[in-house]
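Hi R.,

As promised on Friday, here is the backbone we talked about, encoded as structure tokens. Could you run it through your design pipeline when you get a chance and send me back a sequence?
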């Protein structure tokens, strides 16, 4: 998960045509605005899950499979990795500058 910090009025752009703007920040809430093409559905997560459950009831093969109990977690709540798992070794290459 990518975690970004934004201030009121600042935006995040997804692809070439989706813009998410922070409109207001209050106590425990963030109000965002979403600009997306008409063919892109934008829903709150609970509405999306309800729609998916309804689609599944109508036609289980056509619905996108989702785990109804799965929710996004902020970075501080991600599962701990095993201490036995080594960190990946970065691959770096350096070139001398020509003068």
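Update: got your reply. Pasting your designed sequence below so it's all in one thread:
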């Amino acid at each position: 998960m990518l975690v970004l910090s934004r201030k009121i009025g600042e935006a995040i752009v997804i692809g070439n045509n989706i813009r998410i703007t922070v409109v207001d920040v209050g106590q425990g809430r963030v109000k965002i605005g979403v600009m997306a093409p008409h063919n892109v559905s934008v829903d709150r997560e609970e509405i999306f899950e309800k729609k998916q459950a309804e689609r599944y009831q109508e036609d289980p093969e056509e619905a996108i499979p989702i785990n109804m109990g799965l929710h996004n977690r902020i970075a501080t709540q991600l599962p701990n990795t095993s201490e036995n798992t080594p960190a990946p070794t970065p691959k770096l290459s350096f070139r001398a500058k020509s003068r």
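One thing I noticed while checking it: The first strand starts at residue 11 and ends at 14.

Thanks again,
M.
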